[in-house]
Amino acid sequence: MDLNLTPAEQQFRDEFRSWLAANLPAPEERPKGTRTELGNVTFLKNWQKTLYAGGWAGISWPKEYGGRGATLVEQAIFQEELAHANAPELIGTIGLSLVGPTIIAMGTEAQKQRYLAPILSGEEIWCQGFSEPNAGSDLASLATKAVRDGDDFVISGQKTWTSFAQMADWCLLLVRTDQEAAKHKGITCLLVDMHLPGIQVRPLRMMSGDSAFNEVFFTEVRVPAAQVLGKVNQGWTTAITALMNERANLGSGLQVIFRRNLDALIERSKTVQRNGKPVCEDPLVRQKLAQAQIELEILGLNTMRALTSLAKTGIPGPEGSISKLFWSEMNQKTQQAAQEILGAYGQLSEFDNGIWAYGYLRSRGNTIEAGTSEIQRNIIAERVLGLPKSY
User: Fold this and answer.
1) What angle do CA 170, 67, 324 make, to 5 degrees?
2) C-beta of residue 320 within 8 angstroms of C-beta of residue 251
3) Which of 124, 203, 249, 294 has the fewest CB atoms found within 10 Å of its own CB?
4) Mapping DSSP to helix (H, G, I), strand (E, B) and coil, where does residue 27 land?
């Protein structure tokens, strides 16, 4: 694969850079606190609305659905430029990267007309109702049930680790509609209004202090049967489509963010003193920083390999699991190294605005979210390397 940008791709980059320079909110305009606080939610929704008005929301979507029909390289450029500019996050990222593409692939025309535009504009925020207390990595063991009653499904059960549920307007929800079928069968995907009676959301506070995850309880929630995405009892196919889109998007722009963090750590290693001299002069510290540099380059090469595969097939494949597995474990190791290098300073919320303490604590979830490292290794072994299943 030729990694040099074509003239058209360079033009795309220059156009987006110019737009960001003219529209990016200044640091003093950005609210403080976590993204789930009301002021931040309003700010981030307005930021996505600004992107939408400029034609920069959902750039990978087909033009007929409001996107730009951007190529894979242009999508990578887009994510990199957002990261380089330290732009606010996209609060509608679940809708943009996971729900929207799944509706485009499997939804009815009525569903596309109803849901896609509000996803792009940030008017409606989505969450993903997949995991349950006893169905995380083994997602097909989910027990939340939906019973057909006339023109409705009546839902009862519980979901957990549901990102952004406390601010979400809609949920891409997996439910069991056939109790007698094998566990990968009898599952249906529903588009559920989060404001319906019988839905209760309880935020889960993580050790990092953030509350992006939630428990969601469904008690006799009535959802019209017209809200099925895909086919009844064939929701596993819909789920796999959604998960492939999720994992294919997780690596975009991350290399830039990790590069910025590592550069900051290197600079800090020059100012933090240990035994009367900067810690960067310690051979073991230099080795840790060198290893982090090497792994960051490997991440970039793996990302390009996954991009090459996607460019050839047009379908997100299991290669995305390689990138997800690698960056999640790499970030944990780098954050661990940061704590070892910075010592007690790295634990203080007053030191560098607490980025090292938060980064270390938050990284613990990297190898769980979007599929655990164990699940990713199984996918790589079976679908990439062609190894037999382990039982």
Assistant:
1) 70
2) yes
3) 294
4) helix
CB 98 within 8 A of CB 245: yes
User: 98-150: per-residue pLDDT in tens?
Assistant: 999 999 999 999 999 999 999 999 999 999 999 999 988 788 999 999 999 99
Residue 4 identity (one-letter amino acid): N
246 is catalytic: yes
One-letter amino acid of 211: S
130 DSSP 8-state letter: -
Catalytic residue among 246, 281, 350, 382: 246
Rg of the chain in Å (alpha carbons):
22
Cα(167)–Cα(41) distance, rounded to whole angstroms? 8
CA distance 37 to 57: 23
Vertex 141: Cα angle to 115 and 250 (nearest 5): 50
What domains does the chain contain, in order, with CATH numbers?
A: 7-91 (1.10.540.10), 126-234 (2.40.110.10), 250-384 (1.20.140.10)
Which stretches of the chain are DSSP H helices?
7-23, 38-53, 72-84, 93-94, 100-106, 109-121, 235-249, 254-269, 283-313, 320-342, 355-363, 373-379
Measuring CA to CA, which residue among 226, 144, 225 is closest to residue 187? 144
CB 280 within 8 A of CB 266: yes
In the chain, the percentage of residues whose pLDDT exceeds 70 is 93
Residue 251: pLDDT band (50, 70, 90) is low
pLDDT given at position 249 = 52
The Cα–Cα gap between 127 and 215 comes to 12
Burial of 391 (0-12, 13-18, 19+ CB in 10 A): exposed
Answer yes or no: are the C-beta atoms of 298 and 326 closer than 8 Å.
yes
